[in-house]
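fyi for ur records
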Amino acid sequence: MSFSSAGYQLQPVLPELVLAVGAMVLLMIGAYRGQGTTRLVTALAVLLLVLTGVLELTLPAGKLVTFGGSFIVDDFARFLKILALIGSAATLILATEFLSDPSRRIFEFAILVLLSTLGMMVLISAGDLIMLYLGLELMSLALYVVAASQRDNAKSTEAGLKYFVLGALSSGMLLYGASLIYGFTGTVSFAGIAAAATTGSVGIVFGLVFLLAGLCFKVSAVPFHMWTPDVYEGAPTPVTAFFASAPKVAAMAVFTRATLTAFPGIVTQWQQILVFVAIASMALGSFAAIGQSNIKRLMAYSSIGHMGFALVGLAAGTVEGAQGVLVYIAIYVAMTLGSFSIILAMKRNGRAVEQISDFAGLSRTNPVLAFFFAMLLFSLAGIPPLAGFFAKWYVFVAAIKANLFTLAVIGVLTSVVGAYYYLSIIKTMYFDEPAGRVDPMRFELRAVLAVAGLFNILFALFAGPVVGVATAAAKSLF
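which gave:
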């Protein structure tokens, strides 16, 4: 292989190579210079993620394929990779205060986030079942460790162990499904599977069910959601913010690519599964969150519900549906990061407070923080003209165009139920007696909140370009 052809082969994976090498260099810096380098390593990790994003955007336009078709870079992959990189970079910025505590100076945190992000980028570009599994495991193994990163905290350790045990189970199911699909189609590539799986033979459908079960675990969709509330509550708050943003992007990306490009011939089979999962996730996310008193557990059930709404778009199985998923996931990441920047800012006398009752009277002690949180909660509830309304609009319209009327109606009804618990937090902030002043908000939290909050409030003004990019990304799958 000549140097030029080798360069062409490696060009599509250049951002991933830079991210991998950069993570190794930062690991060496941390290993040789000790925990005192935590701030430096974290700052360099954010810059490395920005550099990776720039490299991703400078790749040649169109569809790039390498490693025999197992790694694909198209508009769909570019859109979601940039989103995952934004989520990871924002997480590291949000974690600055957490890592500045002398007892928590763990430089490995930033390295693990980088390696997990590398897994996400591989997962988003996966063109066959082997690359899908490699990306999924690289992403997940780092997540198991960061969940338990607060080693002196029993809840954090428990969260890491629960996530690891259940994650191993889901990986086994996914592998079993992949082996069945390979056995009945004779290929692992999505294009080859699409050519072979034109009829829903029993073996292929069984394999598909197990494959989707493994992916449902990663997006925390019902009935594979059981780890989410415990892990969200037990993990350190910056880690919870990470779980709720970037990995969801990658998991939803591979969910979309696998179903639409590997199984276009048996849409009716996987559509039934997705309709059930979407309805169950929306219902459980809406009703189970009502009784929660811990804000992180509430965000966990909210996340389950939102993944159900995103799957409404995917269940349509059309270009409009894929576009709806992309718009939804982009807005979801902004809403989630903004909400967690406020949850991280909720401190009294240096101690973090996580109970919903601790938000009482926030509008009187910190009106700006209360206003932004209210806007984010209204957006999560889908109130127009905020971004969350447009997210739901696009997935419901796609479902209606695909004649999934019952699914769309159930989606609207569960949105109304979900609005109850978001509005109850707003009522606590604006009408209850103040629970005391919160500590001043750090600059990095304010920066993330400003960007995410303004994106949500002003989305209607620049919805056109975002939807245009999402439409081009969706079309590249078909």
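The longest strand covers residues 64-66. thats all i got for now
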